[in-house]
Amino acid sequence: MGDGSAAVLSALRFDEYGLVPAVAQQHDTGEVLMLAWMNRRAVEETLHTGRVHYWSRSRNKLWRKGESSGQVQRLVELRVDCDGDTLLLLVDQHGVACHTGRRNCFFRAVREGQLVEIAKPVVTPGELYGEKG
Amino acid sequence: MGDGSAAVLSALRFDEYGLVPAVAQQHDTGEVLMLAWMNRRAVEETLHTGRVHYWSRSRNKLWRKGESSGQVQRLVELRVDCDGDTLLLLVDQHGVACHTGRRNCFFRAVREGQLVEIAKPVVTPGELYGEKG
Fold first, then answer.
1. Alpha-carbon distance A38 to A55, whole Å?
2. Phi first, then psi: what are they for A26, rounded to 5°?
3. Do A35 and B23 touch (CB under 8 A)?
4. What is the C-alpha separation between A123 and A31, in angstroms, rounded?
5. pLDDT value at residue A58
6. Residues A40-79: pLDDT tens digits?
7. Is B4 close to A113, i.e. CB distance below 8 A?
8. B32 and A11 in contact by Cβ < 8 A?
């Protein structure tokens, strides 16, 4: 209770899968890093531990961001939107947010009628996920 | 083709309702304004007109942001995430993004274990939606 999760959970309207989208934003620069999904337990674990947890829809399990890559997100502040169906997470991202090795996931943009890559990986997926050979 | 919508649509993976979440961010300040949903037509109309369109899940229709409130969003840049299942819209928001009259929708935050309001409306819903009496 002391961590605010009861209040947040009662304000949230989860979808039919028990999930809400959560936007992660770097707290000091304003960079939008990624969007992922949270269930009740991910909200609780995030507020309780101060480390961002999501629900992995592809792996169908709780996902402590950075658990395999080391690229953890420390929670700075959790916000709830007007309708209670979206979260905004102000975070401090260690390293890179994107599994491709880029700082954020939104590295393709429409420019002059083309979808172009606007950011390069700063680390390789091998470095992130350990191709230790 | 010239507006990039064909490239974007082929990069997107819509959900079972034909939608993707779209995060709107004020292009110059970095403020995250809101999250709403887009279908194929909303993406096309947004890129074609330069004014942001969403799909309203509550009204089940195309929604040109600001059509009733006047609080339009001009598109500055559209970005696609790594998995093609989320959009980031850099926009220039006229007035307020939130239907409550607040600048953005994320006006509730966990602070000291409580969910507290951190922003007040800058206009009333009556002013936004016209209680002209």
1. 5
2. -65, 125
3. yes
4. 18
5. 94
6. 999 999 999 999 999 999 999 999 999 999 999 999 999 9
7. yes
8. no
